[in-house]
């Protein structure tokens, strides 16, 4: 027996696999006393897969964040079932995830500042670091080599090697406050841009920064100030061209043309926001939830029971659709034909589906109590919905609106599929 | 030792893996004579991965078709390198590939009517059937359960179980010819639609058909006739809404609104085609190559050294960009900022890059002789280009236009990455 990986029915090209999990297995095996044969086995397997792992593609995998227990449930969207759990991730309230470019690893950003690299194939923690005091999200560089975490505390961005989670760049969000003192701003709305760059907003400094890490030893940060008061979240349009930051401190949206950043930030949708009446807002909507169908964007109104329709050529509002509550996530099915909406408390046990051809409500569903998130499979035939207070995730067929599977999960919040690895600005 | 898969650091949920490849390995091992231990090992491993396989994600894998030798080179876009070869696929001239929803398996449609299911993890042929006389492409249903092959000979579509390649539905493209006789049309431009449906065009019958396989035992076929003369290829717009078929027998494009198919086919771009002068056309462009950036589509002109710019709101031509030859593939980088173009003979050793902000040529490259295809990594930082007559594939950094890797391949043609599994209508 040779110490190589053999590919049946193919010519072989040498490759290195993960040796780590095998080591554990080898030690366990040696206890049986068959040392000689096991040494031979070890030689044969060391460069290959650990035998305890199922051989499988990663394109249909994902994870559900269980905020109460600090663990993840790993799921398979073909089987529509969980296949493993991973514990020990710390405080996962409001945690988010991004993926390595091969779809094997998830990077989880926790509210305790933890950054955890989870292996979806071995269902284990590959690496975990406490990188900050309070992280609300992150991004993977376009080339997959860097992971950036956006921190509230200490305010700034930290950039890590995607393989090792070694810190490679620290980018404090230092600014001069009104009283002349130096402070660090909370960072929100981080996204990757082409060419090892990250864009993010500084809540306390009314700014958008772009960090270029082409040379990780000498990052270059471009700073755009006075973009509007208190950017609280942001997104990149699906075509990759515009960065849009919602403003907490005033109405309107700050829009930056990423193809022509020198033109500066433009204000659009002047009436988008809390308004002069300062309506009670039970939960600020997530901007990542904006949906684009054709040339129109569907936005969660703030404080109102409405979804706004915006023409993306003129950036003007062209319609409003009455919905069942204050919208939180407004997300398009990948083909754009439907937009699914969940709501803030007290209407958070419903989900509504907008037909984008008629801009009317096609369906109202009640998946369970406290719907926190929803995620479409990449081609849109299923949507997975987390109902936190019913401890379950419900999977719907988006064509028939029939529930096709229900999974138990402890206080599930975010749901993230590996297909996110393929998307820009996410 | 227990007969289960162990996930280090996690709670276990039972799963079945591939037992097939393990069997071979077990037989080989039994020859060493350590029967008792090996039986225990077999019990422990049977439900898990074969030890000869590297454990890895599939999100960054792909394949290069080597048309001359009937084999595939499997590639890794993170390493920018080949990792295995798979032979025995028959006639691969003009072969195309689609992927299973987990990204593990490629389905290859060959000109000899062969449909081959290739396992990218074991680098072997999982299954191969001769399903027709001459296939030019296929599609996987949105839910991943069905594979459809579009055939020239005998004209029609055959639908297979994606797991087993067992034939589940045969849909002959039978039509009544001008002389009243029954004939079978060649089928082109097949794509998946939401809900286990496939759409395709009948070259000889001037028709577009939609097959609904919700019930595979009783497929329903909707037939739309008189769509224009000789549809030769087709595509679905990236937003999933429109099916567009190019016409060989006359100018113009047949456009079907998939959200409102009852409205029938509309003719757009009346001047798109070979024109009244009947220009010499060295190679009909591939419609799959149409690029959309923002609200504009970039189309290969037929017979002319131009790329056409079309406004997708009005479906009118709004510009023409002079290029170095008759364009074949016109493909947008995933963020839409660049459109890459290759050409028919005699200009087929060049590739040009259009900047979609200015609609001018940003770069002219000479990757090698006889450039047949190009494929972007899903987030667009790399493009892989096959140069058939130089027996190589060249990988470019799309930001700098620098070649970053060169791979040897025998007469490479199509390049297909697993990220296609995530796309609708592809």
From TrEMBL, chains A, B:
SUPFAM superfamilies: C-terminal (heme d1) domain of cytochrome cd1-nitrite reductase
Highest taxon listed in the record's lineage: Bacteria
InterPro entries in the record: Cyt_cd1_C_sf, Haem_d1_sf, Host-pathogen_enzymatic-act
A Pfam family this chain is assigned to: Cytochrom_D1
Coiled coil: none
PANTHER family hit by this protein: DIHYDRO-HEME D1 DEHYDROGENASE, PROTEIN NIRF
Protein name per UniProt: Heme biosynthesis protein
Source organism (scientific name): Oryzomicrobium terrae
Taxonomic lineage: Bacteria, Pseudomonadati, Pseudomonadota, Betaproteobacteria, Rhodocyclales
